[in-house]
Specification:
With 266 residues, this protein is mostly beta strands. It has one domain: 6 Propeller (Neuraminidase), CATH 2.120.10. It contains three helices and 20 strands. A four-stranded antiparallel β-sheet has the order 1-20-19-18, with no helix packed on it. It has a four-stranded antiparallel β-sheet with strand order 2-3-4-5, with no helix packed on it. Strands 6-7-8-9 form a four-stranded antiparallel β-sheet, with no helix packed on it. A hairpin with a 4-residue loop joins strand 19 and strand 20. It is globular and about 45 Å long.
Length: 266
């Protein structure tokens, strides 16, 4: 083999590796605090964090981590299973499903963010699956409806049909996408548990139990989302929320520890 070719190949590999590594990102934990509600998801406002349990929500001051408000449904109440949400214009919007019930039904439940008084809902009924998160981005509502391999024998639909749906301001469906194979293989047998749009225009998604976040971009054509990169995140899946008041910061939970984890993109 030509010696010059070998040297050129090695140099090309070194340059390519260096460039690739320079784009590698990770989330570094900067803080964590105890929150017994930390079971399903989370939402973040400018001053407060809303920690979401299956039928509970705790409102915490960002600085002091003191719980300042609390909401809880009755054990046999209509709000069966809450997940992640978002704070928009003084209201807290959270995804709700009847998980693990079949057929799957979903809604978005709404609270006054100041008082945690329940003030309304939007019902999806029986749609694409279990609504696991909701977000507001670029003037639209976004929500994911999960399907699960663990119930494929009953529904005929598996994790590969977990669907991201884009809605207008009145919750009329505009477009829908499924997740790429690389992500589906990481979240089976569950679905996409958390999602939050970043300031970079990418969608950050999590599975049910892995310590990582999937950075997703919208495809130029077609209905399959595109994976940009998988970034380590010191949580254990479940819901996440980007802090819009501090770009680069993301909140998540560790349900087995009952903790909220705050991380910063490095």
């Amino acid at each position: 083999m030509n010696r010059s070719f070998v040297i050129l190949s090695v140099l090309t590999f070194i340059v390519f590796t260096s460039v690739s590594c320079s784009h590698y990102r990770r989330f570094q934990e900067v803080r964590r605090f105890a929150a017994p509600e930390a079971r399903q998801g989370i939402a973040v406002g400018a001053r407060y964090v809303y920690v979401v349990g299956t039928q509970q929500i705790g409102k915490y001051d960002k600085q002091t981590v003191e719980r300042t408000a609390w909401w809880e449904d009755e054990e046999d109440g209509p709000i069966i299973h809450l997940d992640s949400g978002v704070v928009v214009d003084g209201k807290l919007y959270c995804a709700r499903s009847n998980y693990p019930g079949l057929p799957m039904t979903s809604s978005v439940e709404i609270w006054d963010a100041a008082t945690l008084k329940h003030v309304g809902r939007h019902r999806f009924g029986v749609r694409c699956g279990s609504c696991t998160w909701v977000d507001r981005h670029d003037g639209y509502w976004w929500a994911v409806f999960a399907q699960y391999d663990r119930w494929k024998h009953a529904t005929g639909k598996g994790t590969e049909l977990t669907t991201l749906v884009k809605f207008d301001g009145q919750w009329n469906e505009l477009q829908a996408w499924i997740f790429p194979k690389e992500v589906v293989e990481r979240i089976i047998p569950m679905g996409n548990s958390g999602g939050s749009w970043g300031p970079d225009g990418y969608l950050y998604c999590t599975g049910h139990d892995r310590s990582e976040v999937y950075v997703i971009k919208m495809p130029d054509r077609g209905s399959v989302l595109e994976l940009v990169e998988t970034v380590p995140l010191p949580i254990l899946g479940q819901g996440i929320a980007r802090d819009r008041s501090r770009p680069g910061f993301i909140y998540g939970i560790r349900r087995k520890d009952g903790q909220v984890v705050v991380s910063r993109l490095k």
